[in-house]
Write a structure and sequence with these properties.
With 178 residues, the protein is of the alpha/beta class. It contains five helices and six strands. Pfam families: DNA_binding_1 (PF01035), Methyltransf_1N (PF02870).
Length: 178
């Protein structure tokens, strides 16, 4: 019997950089679907060459929704996402999408919701590897005591995003995205 190997063609990656009230955001698409949103100096940010060639075309709707979010006009994103991670990471990221705008959850609450009450540390690690910040709202997760714990984009940004969403962000989100 002959052995056959099936290979998946390499994914086509494209990226663009847009301004935001929280600094430049690098958007990455894999085969035309948003797969990453990185802030400058973000923990777990891949090297620039992993983002593919510059091309703003795949990002029109994502840019429009981000602009509406920062203007205070959008509270729920409706975008197709291509999230590359382990099954556990993807389950955590799916749980993040359920946290309503302006609300927070603890790592322990997320672990409970996933049916893994002792996995708050694992939830935290998966949360930290979220490749699509802001849109998959990992900034809405806080420590059990209500403290702001680690955030890949930096605690200052996390605090500002939470203040913006709770209505206490001043003019932070009103700046144009472009």
């Amino acid at each position: 019997m002959a052995t056959t190997v099936t290979t998946t063609p390499p994914a086509t990656k494209r990226h663009t950089v847009v301004d935001s009230p929280y600094g430049p955001l690098t958007l990455v698409a894999t085969d035309g679907v948003l797969s990453a949103l990185y802030m400058t100096d973000q923990r777990h940010r891949p090297p620039q060459e992993a983002f593919g060639v510059p091309d703003p075309e795949p990002f029109g709707e994502a840019i429009r929704q981000l602009a509406a979010y920062f203007a205070g006009e959008l509270t729920t994103f409706e975008l197709p996402l291509c999230l590359d991670g382990t099954p556990f990471q993807r389950s955590v990221w799916a749980e993040l999408l359920k946290i309503p705008y302006g609300e927070t959850r603890t790592y322990g609450e997320l672990a409970e919701n996933l049916g893994k009450p002792g996995a708050s540390r694992a939830v935290g690690l998966a949360n930290g590897k979220n490749p699509v910040g802001i849109i998959v709202p990992c900034h809405r997760v806080i420590g059990a005591s209500g403290s702001l714990t680690g955030y890949g984009g930096g605690l200052d940004r996390k605090q500002r995003l939470l203040a913006f969403e709770s209505g206490g962000g001043g003019q932070d989100g009103v700046q144009a995205l472009f």
